[in-house]
Amino acid sequence: MATRSLLTVPLLITVAAAAAAWLALGPAAALAFVALAFLEIAMAADSSVPMAGIAGRLHSPARRLFLSLGIVAGVLAMRLLLPPAAVAVGDATDPASSVEEAVFAPGSFSAHLAEVRPALAAFGAAFIWQVFAEYLFNTDRASRRSWLGSLEARLASVARPRVWSLVTAATGVVVTSVLVGARSGWVAGALLPVALGGVAGIAAYLVSKRTAAWALRSGPGGGSDTASIGVGRGAWRIHLYASTVVFERGLVVFMLFEILDGVYSLSGSGPLGSDGLGALEQAAVAVGAIGVGAVFLARLTSRVDEAAGLKRLRYLKAGAAYVLGVLSVLLWASLLVPIPGVVVGWFGTVVIGSALVSSLPWRAWWRRVVRRPRAV
After folding, report:
1. Is the pLDDT of residue 208 over 80?
2. How far is 110 from 86, CA to CA, in rounded Å?
3. pLDDT tens-digit readout, 82-99
4. 62 versus 33: which is more confidently predicted?
5. Taking the complete model, does pTM exceed 0.85, yes or no?
6. Mean pLDDT over all residues of the chain?
């Protein structure tokens, strides 16, 4: 019943949009939309648990904003607008021209995106690693049970955890830059984008966190009680705080499905490339399908949050965090070696599934079975 209620709105949107696409663009567009929409729904399932972990750090009304409009807006913006923006910055061109090229000349745009991909991957790896390091080094000093044993417990109790987060991210940037430089024969054109992208990722994370910390100050008194945010003159700050969270999660989803997987949503590759659709038709189908996936992601994340799944299943939050850690490592590794598609598609499911299985009360169930009185 719960699964059906979660899927009702996304499926109704999919059916209505597919019918509209059939009438306006033909059966090829409708079939392509349905295929891509179901792919987006499947991919959203892996992201719901990490996103619920982020939602748990918010307080009302920021949580309601994040779970309703924030997720949808963040996913759409990062998936559709960041690549043209990156190409525009890398080629020093007009952003509008990059968007036009993405829609009308996907082959040329894909080539330009490939040129800036190393910098984007390095940026995302450094940024996402620091998000993961919040859990790894327990920057909030929250009481928790370690999922992976004594090593994780020791890392969670290190002194000055934010310094460790910064140092480990910088180490990842330096090591990756050196390896990329050595492989390319120390060509500046290969080394500098990776190094600068990594530094930019660290800087963007620090700016985002500083902005969030400033937004959490609850008005003239300068207090930091997050429960009091949304009262009086400081009410608007909660929206700024929520926007930093939307950016953080939107960047994670973008890096996973666009950069690591290597397929841009508006390009003619992937599910849309062989359907004979025009440029505008492909763009419309891609945007609609991503929107359906974002709506499903928001509803599923909200359901996980309402059910307090991350609290009742004690290791699920750890699994959500380690998905980010593995993603950052994969992004760094992708700068050196190709990452198999099966790894990209299934690593999140494996990590979250392992955390879920280890969270189940197996011992309690076993005790009940053993101690169950036998019928005479």
Report:
1. yes
2. 12
3. 778 888 877 767 788 888
4. 33
5. no
6. 76
